[in-house]
Amino acid sequence: MGRAPCCDKANVKKGPWSPEEDSKLKDYIEKYGTGGNWIALPQKAGLKRCGKSCRLRWLNYLRPNIKHGEFTDDEDRIICTLFASIGSRWSIIAAQLPGRTDNDIKNYWNTKLKKKLMAMNAQSDLLNNTNLTNNSSLIQTPESLFSHMQYHPMRDNFLMFGGEPSCSSSDGSYGKEMKQEDHMGFQGFGASLDYGTNNGVNQWIQKQSGYSGECPLDYNLEDVKRLISSNNNSFFIDENDTQDKAMYCYYY
DNA sequence: AAAGGGTCCAACCGCGGTCGC
DNA sequence: GGCGACCGCGGTTGGACCCTT
């Protein structure tokens, strides 16, 4: 049995919001707040909308200090780094970008930023990766502000490389091919990605613990900006180093 | 000018988490 | 502890707009 609907779907308006509806919602919330109950809010505000729809409209469009328009290079860097570090946790990423909403960032990533990074990959000279074998599935990004990221076509995802590599194969050595029981990780900004076996399934696993034991959420915006803007800090290794480490990373 | 395809983004949907009873 | 109601999140969709032919 499914959950009961949060509203009478037959009597709620759907689709784009009109300026009148925006005005009603904005006026009501500015006067009375949300009252901690979005389900009851539309009725009180005189709106024929679902509470969830009101909440979304307020959070993504009407609330004060929402920033619209182009994303800056700084914001790009923050999004890329956090995405590589924590994945599609848009609300957490949005928390580091004042004025941006998770929906905004999600849309921006899906429609622009991801393509931007993939285009960079396409431009990169794959011959630079001659250290990699032909069956490698990792493509390194060119030297750029995103140089610490690599696109993984088979996962349709970006991985970030930096910090100290950790690789513990079953035989205790760095292997050129990963075995089922191998375990391999790259510690990056505040978190790390591990390739290993989880319940018999080979997969990349996001480790909770990160560099120096710190969690990404322990950083405020200024910290993030400072860390990302510095190419020589301890979180990111240099290009040559990255290439060396990439040698050991093969898709199983 | 019109048609078709591509892009973008606001909004919706469904699910997991949380909270109060 | 179980249950229901609500919140918040991430994935997906629909349609408006733009671009190309």
TrEMBL record:
It holds the Pfam family Myb_DNA-binding. PROSITE patterns: HTH_MYB, MYB_LIKE. It is found in: Nucleus. Keywords: DNA-binding, Nucleus, Repeat, Transcription, Transcription regulation. Residues 9-62, 63-117 form the HTH myb-type domain. GO terms for molecular function: DNA binding. Its main location: nucleus. Gene3D superfamilies: Homeodomain-like. This is Transcription factor RAX2.
